[in-house]
Amino acid sequence: MGGRVNEDLIKERRKCTFDIKELTHIIDCGEENTIKRKQIDNYILNIKELWDDVPEEYLSHKERYENAIKKAFIVLKVLRQLHTGNIQITDHRTPTNVYSIQDGIFRNVNPLLIHIGLFWSTIAAQASTEQQAEWLQPDSSMIGTYVQTELGHGSFIRGIETTATYDSTTDEFILHTPRLSAYKWWPGGLGNTANACLVMAQLYINGTCHGLHIFLAQIRDFDTHKPLPGIKVGEIGPKMGFNTADNGFLGFDNHRIPRTNMLMKNVQVLRDGTYVKPKHDKLTYGSMLLTRVTLISDLAYQLSKAATIAVRYSAVRRQSPIKSNEPERQILDFVSQQHKLFITIASSHVYRVVGLWMWNSHKRVTADIHEGNMGQLPELHALACCLKAISSRDASALVEQCRLACGGHGYMMASNLPQIYAYTTAAVTYEGEYTVLLLQTARYLVKFWRLAAEHKPLPQNFAYFEDYIKKNFEQWRNSPEGIIEGFKAIVAGKTKAAYDTLQCNLRNGREFEEAWNMASVQLTNASEYSTISRNDIEALQSRYEELLALIRPNAVGLVDAFDIRDEVLCSTLGAYDGRVYERMMEEASKSPLNEDVVNESFHKYIRPVTMKNKL
Ligand SMILES: CCCCCCCCCCCCCCCCCCCCCC(=O)SCCNC(=O)CCNC(=O)[C@H](O)C(C)(C)COP(=O)(O)OP(=O)(O)OC[C@H]1O[C@@H](n2cnc3c(N)ncnc32)[C@H](O)[C@@H]1OP(=O)(O)O
Ligand SMILES: Cc1cc2nc3c(=O)[nH]c(=O)nc-3n(C[C@H](O)[C@H](O)[C@H](O)COP(=O)(O)OP(=O)(O)OC[C@H]3O[C@@H](n4cnc5c(N)ncnc54)[C@H](O)[C@@H]3O)c2cc1C
Q1: Distance from the alpha carbon of residue 158 to the mean position of ligand 1, in angstroms
Q2: CB 34 within 8 A of CB 24
Q3: How high is the pLDDT of residue 99?
Q4: Is the ipTM of this complex over 0.90?
Q5: Is 188 within any annotated ligand binding site?
Q6: 3-state DSSP helix/strand/coil percent for the chain, to nearest 5?
Q7: Which sites bind FAD (predicted)?
Q8: Whole-Å CA distances, 467 to 247, 461, 494
Q9: C-alpha separations of 565 from 103, 221, 317, 460, 575 in Å
Q10: Cβ 257 vs Cβ 56: under 8 Å
Q11: 431 counts as catalytic
């Protein structure tokens, strides 16, 4: 759409006091990465077949999937070409990723998300060298997914009921779904797309259960795509979001796979049925750990999209004067609006930085694990659980705040904020539900609090527990260091309170697990435990208001620096040129309800009632 840029946005961009490009380079981790990202954006976004004539929302459930799958395979083909061609993608999970572009192409979810994001990465991380050589061929016929959750069990994966029983006479595993609750339910791409999958199942050898293991199973014929004998597979139906992801169900009726289809890098079953244990019990959970780490950066990106839309719109939208004799003001001038939006910009940066830090930590710990050193794994798991939980919860709350900050227009699908919300809130549940993950972190913290309470030596990272017990915490200081000290005090105080409740429940004769459950609200909720006073809070509040005023002239510059193209934002409210009302009218004209001047339902249903006595 051509046309002039909105005057208010032009003025906002003139006001900006910093170099927008420099911030973009920081976000991309360097100018080189920005250049590379833009090259890839241009390359992919210029493929005409990827763009729709009819907005996605007007398609039926089936049409949406078919449209998405057409695009998914164009993107897959391009990705393969990019990997071998002139434009090199070094690592799709680093900030120079191509993953973000898919938001624009699909306006929903790529049905191959799990194939690319989880299937291949799990094989790469958990299959033996020989298995990788066989399965990770660039021209492989396999389209796979990650099949773990069942109808009856998602959070408590030790409760998974699908079995893989070793038959030493044929050198095969028999995959079986013993009852309805054991049906796999949810995996992305399973419904119609995948012809293979990684299945999480309980391993049985000679009647002994060895717990959960991962198996590669072909489920459809590579040529005809028909389900193989013994496989019952389908799609689970419409959801709040993720409607192009063809999430599916799957049942096995004594389906046989070769023994060599168990992922055997960390654990093995030998030909005679000997079980070779892994070096750490939870290495099988590695893919979940990796995805939790990846998600933090993805959620930061979703926040940057929501902030871009809401800030640009708030600069364009004028409503109400501040003083009655003045013209109407940009809604961005209302301090309450700034409070809603600037937190979103800041949170995007926070989770981007933390996500990157976690990504690097994951790389480091994985390298250690390869060397046989598991020492850092528990801390990484505790951090990943906590950060995935709070980043997803914060992101969905803030995206919703941005949507509300756009008033009625934020409720339009054409603003793209409802879709961003539906995508973001799913992350609170998948890959480890919020509360369940926080309880994993609580478990880790309580373990170290027990050491502190028993005056046993603590690792350096937990020295502040001891400080708290010895009341070594400094008085509150209104400075970044003071705030960090304050957070340490809160964690220590919170952990102490939860630990004390736990001990009290145990003294009252409860068993540990029951006592833990009774303390679980305390174990997940935060409280104020620092030395902060009423005066400190007032000082912080006024400092905060000063900061909002300082940020105000740079607000549009800050979101421009996220450098998200209009084709990816997909928003009438958030486009770079700020031609909000023109775009809204143009989108409305695409509604099928505007195709006929008089809809045929008038003649069928309305007229017979409204004209009944007049005919
Ligand atoms: C343009 C191009 C575009 C192209 C596209 C390109 C794409 C490419 C880009 C890709 C981008 C990707 C974006 C992603 C999008 C995602 C989409 C949706 C994916 C959704 C997938 C899923 O949704 S998939 C299912 C996930 N489903 C869970 O997430 C279950 C949670 N449930 C548990 O995870 C366990 O149930 C739970 C609670 C740990 C208890 O497990 P449990 O009962 O066995 O263990 P216990 O609690 O008894 O704990 C016993 C001890 O194990 C310790 N421990 C436990 N876990 C540990 C671990 N992992 N590591 C170390 N230690 C661990 C613990 O700390 C204890 O330690 P200690 O004893 O020392 O205290
Ligand atoms: C969009 C989407 C995509 C998905 N994709 C995949 C996929 O590709 N592959 C796959 O295998 N799975 C997938 N899943 C499934 C997902 O991983 C699970 O839904 C998730 O792990 C939560 O498990 P659940 O549904 O069993 O929830 P439940 O565990 O039944 O949670 C329900 C409630 O019970 C509470 N609860 C449960 N256990 C405890 C506890 N111990 N202590 C306190 N509270 C507890 C929870 O906090 C929550 O409030 C997907 C899910 C969604 C929504």
Answers
A1: 12
A2: yes
A3: 67
A4: yes
A5: yes
A6: 55, 10, 35
A7: 149, 188
A8: 49, 12, 14
A9: 11, 40, 21, 44, 8
A10: no
A11: yes
Task: Give the closest residue (by CA) to ligand 1 atom 18.
Answer: 430
For residue 102, what pLDDT is reported? 83
Task: Please name the amino acid found at residue 257.
Answer: I
Using CB distances shorter than 6 Å, the residues near ligand 1 are 44, 75, 92, 98-99, 101-102, 110, 113, 116-117, 146, 148-149, 155-158, 188, 282, 285, 288-289, 291, 294-295, 298, 377-378, 381, 430-432, 436, 440, 443
CA–centroid distance, 428 to ligand 2, in Å, is 9
What is the spatial distance between Cα 547 and Cα 537, in angstroms, rounded to a whole number? 15
Question: How far is ligand 1, taken at its centre, from the CA of residue 199, in Å?
Answer: 15
**Residues near ligand 2 with C-beta < 6 Å?**
114, 146-149, 154-155, 186-188, 242, 247, 426, 429-433, 435-436, 439, 520
Low-confidence stretches of the chain (pLDDT beneath 70): 1-2, 83-99, 525-527, 529-530, 615
Please give the pLDDT value at position 609.
94
Q: Which two tokens stand for residue 539?
A: 């000082």
Distance, in Å, from the CA atom of 382 to the CA atom of 183, rounded to the nearest integer, reads 30
